[in-house]
């Protein structure tokens, strides 16, 4: 589809900014609102309900009533499957419009939004819907006079707190498995990007999700804190910064010790050993790993650790590609990168770029952004001469920055890759299967890609080590573990 057609869809969008509680759209209890903008243009899209603690109480109560009634939690897996499959189909039918809505609310490329919103989101509801009637309990090996049943039950009321970089997909990562298990779900979208989650809630209702089973509460950090501290919320699944993830651990400890699942920041290495084949596929992966979604990605491979014997050739090829990247209108399919999420975030990215310059790294392309531009567009930036302890090599930039660190052998590469408080993702390029497995098993992170950059797909769990996450995982069958309790039923009989 052309840019003109996407812009036509955008011009006809009807924005819904109200909260979704107990099956209907409502204003915040105190009438407060905030504005959400298109970061590619700086234009206001609409006013959004600024929910508060009172709204949290109302939503949690509706979720609890729905859960205890059994209208969803005690319905058959086959029924939940039927509803989730219908939900998936309705999302496919509205996929283009939902994708455009996400693009204008985030500054994300329309091509990425189509892939995530129109394709991946419905697939998640389909996949977990089809999975849930295949989750079995166990019978324990006991004395003949005893039967022990080990069964799985929905944990209860779930709060899903999601970030702005993949607003609908991260919400879906929480919603799909939680709904499949029979839980009630409250989604708190990021204040910068609330619109797709709000819209999708109504679609869920049309699919047959009962009132109260899915609520959406737009607002700021006080809403997240209220959910995290609420004694009637049984679990929180959070995706976002490591700092805020720590807050949710605190909230749990100071309230009801609710289960907390965390997927947080990253500083992922991209390791290219001496024997790697520097073909177009590898360079594509290098570019994609750093600049996909404008680098606003927790698994972005900004730390590119390259063997000294191939570094010059690698840099030459990467530099040509960086120079060719087209930064511009997110609704134009020919653009390679859209905008940053906000003016404040752009300034933060620029400050990291400036710190790299100040610490002695060499800018080969890019640099700080133009100050008088319309919209919040960062420059794709390529650094050479990055040292492992520089600020840009240690802290999560969350912007389009690729930094090259030079090493002389595999063990030096491993040492530098491990020198991070994060452990979310890593990529390794080598022709040597032994080196590939050695690095894959040695790197302390949740996902290791060999000869590619990939986070996996719906069938594989995603999460991190160290300060990138907790023991919980999104995606795969493992995602269900966040939303299920394990119960033993011990039966004595003659």
**What's the name of the CATH homologous superfamily of the largest domain?**
Aldehyde Dehydrogenase, Chain A, domain 1
Oligomer: single chain
Architecture (CATH level 2) name of the largest domain: 3-Layer(aba) Sandwich
Rg, rounded, reads: 23 Å
State the strand order across the main sheet.
Answer: 14-15-16-13-12-18-19
| Tally of DSSP β-strands | 21
Whole-number mean pLDDT: 97
Give the number of domains. 2
Helix content: 25-40%
Which class of secondary structure composition applies to the elements? Answer: alpha/beta
Number of helices: 15
In words, what does this structure look like?
By secondary structure, this protein is α/β, with parallel strands linked by helices. It has two domains: 3-263 and 469-488, Aldehyde Dehydrogenase, Chain A, domain 1 (3-Layer(aba) Sandwich); 269-458, Aldehyde Dehydrogenase, Chain A, domain 2 (3-Layer(aba) Sandwich), CATH 3.40.309.10. The chain has helices at 3-11, 53-69, 77-93, 95-106, 110-131, 167-181, 195-207, 221-229, 242-253, 280-291, 308-324, 343-358, 391-394, 410-418, 433-442; strands at residues 19-21, 24-26, 33-38, 43-49, 138-140, 146-154, 157-161, 184-188, 214-216, 235-239, 259-263, 269-272, 303-307, 362-365, 381-384, 401-407, 422-423, 425-429, 447-450, 465-466, 484-492. It has a seven-stranded mixed beta sheet with strand order 14-15-16-13-12-18-19, with helices on both faces. A five-stranded parallel beta sheet has the order 9-8-7-10-11, sandwiched between helices. The longest helix is centred in the first third of the chain and has 22 residues, at 110-131. It is globular. It starts with a helix and ends with a strand.
């Amino acid at each position: 589809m052309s840019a003109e057609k996407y812009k036509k869809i955008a011009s006809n969008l009807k924005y819904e900014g109200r909260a979704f509680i107990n099956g209907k759209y409502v204003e915040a209890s105190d009438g407060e609102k905030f504005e959400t903008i298109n970061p590619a243009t700086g234009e206001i899209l609409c006013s959004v309900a600024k929910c508060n603690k009172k709204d949290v109480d109302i939503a949690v109560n509706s979720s609890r009533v729905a859960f205890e009634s059994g209208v969803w939690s005690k319905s058959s897996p086959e029924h939940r499957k039927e509803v989730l499959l219908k939900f998936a189909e309705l999302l496919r039918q509205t996929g283009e419009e939902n994708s455009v809505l996400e693009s204008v609310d985030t500054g994300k490329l329309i091509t990425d939004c189509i892939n995530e919103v129109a394709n991946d989101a419905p697939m998640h509801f389909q996949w977990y819907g089809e999975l849930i009637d295949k989750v079995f309990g166990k019978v324990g090996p006991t004395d003949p006079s005893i039967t022990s049943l080990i069964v799985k039950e929905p944990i209860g009321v779930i709060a899903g707190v999601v970030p702005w970089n993949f607003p609908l997909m991260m919400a879906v990562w929480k919603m799909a498995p939680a709904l499949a298990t029979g839980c009630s779900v409250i989604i708190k979208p990021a204040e910068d990007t609330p619109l797709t989650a709000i819209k999708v809630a109504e679609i869920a209702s049309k699919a047959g999700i009962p009132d109260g089973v899915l609520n959406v509460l737009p607002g700021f950090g006080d809403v997240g804190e209220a959910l995290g501290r609420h004694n009637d919320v049984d679990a929180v699944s959070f995706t976002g910064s490591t700092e805020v993830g720590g807050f949710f651990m605190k909230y749990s400890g100071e309230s009801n010790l609710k289960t907390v699942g965390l997927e947080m920041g990253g500083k992922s290495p991209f390791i290219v050993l001496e024997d790697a084949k520097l073909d177009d596929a590898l360079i594509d992966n290098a570019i994609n790993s750093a600049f996909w979604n404008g680098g606003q990605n927790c698994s972005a491979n900004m730390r590119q650790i390259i063997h000294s014997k191939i570094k010059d050739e690698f840099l030459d090829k990467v530099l040509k590609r960086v120079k060719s990247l087209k930064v511009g209108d997110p609704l134009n399919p020919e653009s390679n990168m859209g905008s940053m999420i906000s003016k404040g975030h752009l300034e933060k990215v620029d400050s990291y770029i400036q710190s790299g310059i100040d610490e002695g790294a060499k800018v080969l392309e890019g640099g700080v952004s133009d100050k008088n531009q319309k919209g919040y567009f960062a420059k794709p930036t390529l650094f050479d001469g990055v040292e492992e302890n520089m600020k840009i090599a240690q802290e999560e930039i969350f912007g389009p920055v690729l930094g090259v660190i030079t090493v002389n052998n595999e063990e030096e590469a491993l040492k530098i890759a491990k020198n991070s408080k994060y452990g979310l993702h890593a990529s390794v390029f080598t022709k040597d299967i032994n080196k590939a497995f050695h690095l894959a098993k040695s790197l302390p992170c949740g996902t290791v890609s060999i000869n590619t950059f990939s986070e996996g797909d719906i069938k594989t769990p995603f999460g991190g080590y160290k300060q990138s996450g907790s023991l919980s995982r999104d995606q795969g069958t493992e995602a269900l573990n966040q939303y299920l309790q394990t119960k033993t039923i011990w039966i004595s009989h003659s």
